[in-house]
Design goal:
- The structure holds two protein chains of two kinds.
- By secondary structure, chain A is an all-alpha fold.
- Helix content of chain A is 67%, strand content 0%.
- The N and C termini of chain B lie far apart (107 Å).
- By secondary structure, chain B is of the alpha+beta class.
- The longest helix of chain B has 51 residues.
- In chain B, strands 1, 2, 3, 4, 5 and 6 form a six-stranded mixed sheet that branches.
- Chain B has seven helices and six strands.
- Classes of the chains: A mainly alpha, B alpha+beta.
- Chains A and B meet through α8 of A and loops of B.
Chain lengths: 211, 247
Amino acid sequence: MKEIAFTAALTDFNNRAHTIPAIPAYPIESMPDRLYVRLLRPLLGLIVKRHRYRGRPTVLDPVPPYAYGRLVETYAGSPIGAILARTLAEMWASPHLTRRCKLLMIAVIARGLGCEVCAPEVSEALRREGLKESTLAQVLTHLDAPELDDIERLLVPFARETIWYEPAPLQRRARMLRDRLSGPQLLEAIGVASLANGLCRMGATVMDHKI
Amino acid sequence: MTGPFVVVALLVLLAGLAVAIYRQWRQNQTLKAQLEAIATDLQHLQQSCSRLVPAGVLQHLIADGVKSGIEAAVPERKVVTVLFADLVGSTAMSDRLEPAVLARVLNGYFQRMSDAIHEHRGHVAHFLGDGIVAYFGALQPNPWQCNDAVRAALAMRAAIREYNVELGREGLPLLALGIGIDRGLGLVGLVGSRERMEYDFVGRTVNVAARVQTLTRIHQADILVTEALRAELDARFVLTPMPRRDA
């Protein structure tokens, strides 16, 4: 079940990560049918097999200290846990958006999906970042607050738009962001929103609560 | 004697293998073409259906696995925001204009209003004459549905102003809109008879929104919201309290 949830979350992540920046899907989807990929398939198979750890528990070290730590822990022992932990650690370490901004985006997506497991973790992390309870409540209720900086004010409503997969509005909002954020900031915002959507849904399945 | 026999046998085997591979390849190509044709047909069907019902409703119907009976999908209880919009003075306009011109004016109006509603995460449930019933939070959970509905109403107001400039240039009568918005609990899902069903919201809120819309004429305001909705709204919306009246 956990593996199925991870695969579904990965699809969810990929859908958004490709759709928001309007990357054409056909060249990627048709890649397995191309001659050079078919010729390289045995070699690719060998490379993939080298990274399989069937039957061997994978050490989970360290558990990410921020939101989704509990979700990662449920995958302890599986290679998925280690990959999730590394992905999250890299997301938090990336410097183009502040940690508070990323947490606010995740909080909005968790609220939109009614994710009761992720929400307390995210709230706690935001408190540690110095955000007042009342400000968080206002952001979650109205997607804005006077205490937000300019980038947060742009990305909080954008995070909300990514919750339901509707390509046209998603791309329209992304185009509006393009002129107001730097390239790396926009890329990071797309990554955070895509990841949060996948993780919240995965949490809903794995940690037994309803979306 | 054995040498040539083996060579011939091998050649025959190779030829047989080549024929089998070729036939399999042809079969694969045919199946692939059929699959692509079916996918294209489905896409066209979905596009056609999305004109009759909103795309979100269609996804719900597919997800619910609706076949033919009412029992297939059980409605669920939800808090939904209802926006009810109606044209002011449309009867007089319909008497004055040629049917073809009237249809063009109305279609332009419906298109602009629908765009404003969709842009703010609502879906148009019904066109009632020249009225529009739209729901926010019926298809997907939406904790921001009240703000969305009011933003949609403001966008509709702006759209009708722009449309009036176009109509004025053509010497056509200008349109005026009344919008009522309420929020409340009700049943969402497929309702209707075996022969005809609709994905709808059933509850007092729909009637309240409709009655509030009629009050726009009395209060000389184009957008009116109920107290239940106001309580959930962002404080930055500037509202003017209206004297209490029974619709």
